[in-house]
Design goal:
By secondary structure, the chain is mostly beta strands. It has a single domain, classed as Jelly Rolls, CATH 2.60.120. It has one helix and nine strands, in the order H-E-E-E-E-E-E-E-E-E. The strands form two sheets. A five-stranded antiparallel beta sheet has the order 1-2-9-4-7. Strand 5 and strand 6 form a beta hairpin. The mean pLDDT is 94.
Length: 105
């Protein structure tokens, strides 16, 4: 079993050392379900991309902004947010770690 706190620490450290300000680790890949820990330094972003069939974002540390045409949503540590079925992006408002859960077709 993976320790989310240890992974959050590890990947936030890696993101801080990365020129791109991010680091990720796929925890689970059992089609159609995937779970990935993503660490982003403050101001780093995941550019706009297409949404999977279903997805949610749980913020483990920090605060992020989920951006989409239907409206932006800020999510803080402990928050859980469904990802809209449209192109979207993610911006770290402070050093952050999220757990992305997706279901793919």
């Amino acid at each position: 079993m993976d320790d989310l706190n240890a992974l959050a620490d590890e990947h936030l450290t890696a993101a801080r050392a990365s020129a791109h300000g991010r680091s990720a680790h796929r925890l689970l890949h059992e089609e159609p379900l995937r779970q990935t820990v993503i660490a982003l330094t403050s101001g780093s972003a995941l550019d706009e991309h297409n949404a999977p069939a279903a997805a949610s974002l749980q913020v483990l540390r920090g605060r992020v902004r989920l951006t989409a045409a239907s409206g932006d949503v800020e999510v803080s540590a402990g928050g859980l947010q469904p990802i809209p079925q449209e192109r979207h992006g993610l911006l770290a408002l402070e050093d952050s770690v999220v757990l992305l859960t997706t279901v793919n077709d």
